[in-house]
Amino acid sequence: MNTASTSGGTLEPVILDAMELTSDPDLRARFAASAHRILADLVREGAALGWTGPPSFDEVSELLDHVFAAVHAADAALRAAYLDGRLVGLGYWLRHTRPTHRPHADLEKIAVAASAHGRGIGRALTAELIADAGRAGIEVLTLDARGDNSGALRLYRSLGFTEYGRLPDFVAVGERRYDKVFCMLDFRQER
Predict the structure, then answer these.
(1) For residue 30, what is the enclosing H or E element?
(2) What is the pTM of this model?
(3) Which H/E stretch holds residue 40?
(4) What's the pLDDT tens digit per position in 45-83?
(5) From residue 136, how far is each of 51, 110, 139 by CA, in Å?
(6) Distances from the Cα of 167 to the Cα of 26, 51, 106, angstroms
(7) What would the CATH number be for the domain defined by 4-189?
(8) How far apart are CA 140 and CA 124, in angstroms?
């Protein structure tokens, strides 16, 4: 896998799409294990990724199989970020399955390893996924985030997402309650 470096010697992330990941069976197998480590570590540290406890390898593998199948059916996009040959982030969107909602998709997950935070990887992954959605003819890309995830919400706003709703105290993590914030990026305004 190639890595690009800047003149200062800092490595730039290499962003691969799902087709690039699946073209090499060894890379695909390592991807599942690495993605599991990232997701489990982030959830263990309290990240808002949809699990209340670290997901098992089987849960992550099943999720990735579902996403890869959707990508091959042109109903999803998946991106993975590598630094120096090591997976440091991933994200994906899935097209809505209901016939009346097919032109729309949900940005489901953006996850960046804690060791790579602050390097622009979340922004790069999200920007690539937004571009993928535009190329796929998605009209509206939606997402939801936990209300206390101010960094992610700031990132999404900076990339053109707008908040369209909020459910107060909707997310329950133990005794804690958090707002669920709904955001959208409307491609129809650009067409």
Answers:
(1) helix 25-44
(2) 0.91
(3) helix 25-44
(4) 999 898 989 999 999 999 999 999 999 999 999 999 999
(5) 29, 19, 9
(6) 42, 18, 17
(7) 3.40.630.30
(8) 20
